[in-house]
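Example record for the data management plan.
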Amino acid sequence: MREDRKVTDLRVELRAWLAENVPKDWRTQQAGDNIEGFLASQREWLSRLVKGGYATPHWAPEWPGGGRSLAEQVAIFEEIARADAPRMSLFFVSLYHAAMTLMECGTPEQRARHLPAILKGEIWCQGFSEPNAGSDLASLRTRAERKGDRYIVSGQKIWSTLGQFADQCLLLVRTDNSGPKQVGITFLLMDMKSKGVQARPIKQITGDEEFAEIFLDEVEIPVENRVGEENEGWKVAQVTLSSERGLTLVELTERLALSLWRLVEAATANGHEIDRLDVEVRRRVVDIASRIEALRAMIATLMANRMAGREAVGDASIIKLAYARLSRDFTALGLRLRGMAAQRDTRYVLGAGYETGNWMFDFMNSYQYNIAGGSNEIQRNIVSERVLMMPREKLA
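Corresponding structural encoding:
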């Protein structure tokens, strides 16, 4: 499909800007357990993107850099990936989930208070999942009781991405138990510095601490911090969950495509020439390369259909399942090819994707995408029921 001239011009402009502005040493700053370096580097990169007008292409036109079409947003994600720029992991929830929720469902006062702060580096996290309410989010139990102009909240949230660094939280709480699970949920904005809030980082098998669990002990949240009406938070949450629009997979797939050389590097690390490698090794590398190109084509079709209003239910689930399997196979092959050396290299990069060339970390980290953005089991249910029109499983 031929690209629109406006999008092509944007790519040329952005490539020139990225050549001048991508921090040259960001991988060093964001490596290993250098948390302070990670935070400083992420803040610097956000500041540059905001000034350049590339941080908020999905925001409304009245905001700096806002009002871009979906095609332009896709181009920005692709070019940032191709320039090997850091991912906006620290501010992704702020720029997408929080900002779009406030723009579509927030009050004028909430937007005026938080949107300018996000552009200045306010960090948001998401308080949705709970120990017994992950895939079945509607089963959440964190309780909020209204007393005058306050909600008193107690409960626990888990798997909150970088929640230990957050200033604010998008919080789902239960305010009514009398009806169906989706009814009785309320959406609140919570200051993470409020009395009774404790965020603890979760140490992963990779050594990373990308997630946190949040404990809430009679936390007072003003009623003015409610988004939408009481007991109608489920509707607001759907806006939050759809705000990213699949652009993350655009970026992550491009990063895989541009990291194929790492597989070749792993295969030839012991002095082997590429044309003398084992036939099976070459076949596996070519298989991964072919699947990456197929996924890129699938994503391009999905985005074109979305722009034309032809997207079908389940299309995004198919893409997500394909990426989850591909990233796992990509990293598993790199781990196998690198051999024992991969067992010794344990340094990870916080602001990178799953293709850093640190194969053990990349391989273990790739499994999180089986859950992130909706578990593979949930996605398969969507495909089977909504695409293949198979009957729903009967509940016991």
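Summary line stored alongside the record: DSSP finds 14 helices and eight strands in the chain.
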